[in-house]
Write a structure and sequence with these properties.
The chain has ten helices and ten strands. It has about 350 residues and is of the alpha/beta class. The chain has a six-stranded mixed sheet with strand order 1-2-10-7-8-9, with helices on both faces. Strands 5-4-3-6 form a four-stranded parallel sheet, with helices on both faces. The protein is globular.
Length: about 350
């Protein structure tokens, strides 16, 4: 950057509502961490208005349902979510005037449920022992009993479609004329992987697509098929799933949206990542890059770094950062981050005479 003072000129347009600002998130260079000659970028989905990649999905589900007539004016929307889809849906439903009910296992971070309630949604908690299937089945029950619109993020065609139409197109445009050797993502519903892969397989076939999942919940790597209902919904928990700290990734079943990517061989490599490694990756991005992302973002970054360390000079890698770190304050991501001053901070406080805290 030149020494000229930073200025801005505006976007050159006005927006009719917050929904119009979804998408067009930046790919940011990660500096000083990858080996020399290897370029590492992160697609920062926390630039979406409700701070996660799921804002795209939320807009797509609601607008596609409006177009088809499946969602009626004023009808209540219900969905099972670990948080980010619910936050995105809460934003969209607030802007469009739909009541929203979220079902969520009580194991997910408190910040997420508070954010959804702050945006006007109702959050119905389910026991963590029932895992993702419990909150999923609760949403189905509520929809069937009350005649509500079930968002069906794990099955709906609107999921991968929005990533094909936006996320994938953005990546192709941003790397036009540039190398893009690897694209790294995890999965929750599988929509990002499936939608982006549809585009990259056609327009950037040289790009290797890497899928990551938690080391202790390798349900895709297991090769064991997901049991499904005739409609494609999961018929039960996958036997190889275990609880893991990478919130938003890998529910206890293989979503139907992800199944397309599995069946179509949309990824070239499957790499496991331990939860603690993802947490360390998130902290490393914050401390060395000023990038605040959650555990899932730290996990994709850690996998991208693993690839970078073995890559030849000239290699370019892009990893997804699905959300912001602020919705993990009560999670293991922030364990050890003190509220009170450390001994070193107390010394700094005492190094000048004024405005010292009484306890210091």
């Amino acid at each position: 950057m030149s020494s000229q003072s930073r200025t801005t000129e505006g976007r050159g347009r006005l927006y009719d509502d917050v929904i119009e600002t979804v998408g067009n998130t930046p790919c940011i260079r990660i500096n000083g961490l990858a080996p020399e000659g290897v370029r590492l970028y992160a697609k920062a989905e926390f630039f979406n208005p409700a701070a996660s990649v799921k804002d795209r999905l939320a807009v797509s589900i609601i607008e596609e349902a409006e177009r088809s007539g499946a969602l009626k004016p004023g009808q209540t929307v219900v969905e099972a979510t670990s948080g980010n889809t619910g936050i995105g849906l809460a934003m969209v439903c607030a802007a469009k005037g739909y009541p929203l009910v979220i079902t969520m296992a009580d194991s997910f971070s408190i910040e997420r449920r508070k954010l959804m309630r702050f945006l006007g949604a109702k959050v119905v908690l389910t026991p963590r022992a029932a895992k993702g299937m419990g909150m999923y089945q609760k949403a189905v029950e509520l929809a069937e009993t009350n005649g509500w619109f079930l968002a069906s993020q794990f099955e709906t065609d609107a999921n991968a479609k929005i990533h094909e139409n936006t996320t994938g197109r953005e990546i192709v445009a941003d790397f036009a004329g540039e190398r893009l050797d690897y694209y790294v993502t995890g999965y929750g519903t599988g929509g990002t992987l499936t939608g982006v892969a549809r585009v990259l397989r056609k327009e950037r076939p040289e790009t290797k697509i890497v899928l990551a999942e938690p080391t202790n919940a390798q349900i895709v790597a297991s090769g064991r098929a997901q049991q499904r209902t005739p409609e494609g919904s999961p018929a039960g928990s996958h036997p190889d799933w275990e609880p893991h700290p990478i919130q938003g990734w890998t529910p206890d079943f293989i979503p139907l949206v992800l199944q397309e990517a599995i069946d179509g061989s949309y990824y070239d490599e499957l790499i496991p990542v331990p939860g603690p490694t993802g947490i360390e990756g998130s902290r490393r991005l914050a401390e060395t890059q000023g990038i605040l992302t959650g555990i899932s973002g730290g996990s994709t970054f850690a996998v991208a770094m693993q690839i970078a360390e073995k890559a030849a000079p000239g290699t370019t890698i892009l990893c997804m950062l699905p959300d912001t770190g602020e919705r993990y304050l009560s999670s293991p991501l922030f364990e050890g981050i003190a509220e009170d001053m450390s001994a070193e901070e107390v010394v700094l406080s005492k190094s000048t005479p004024g405005f010292q805290m009484p306890s210091s």
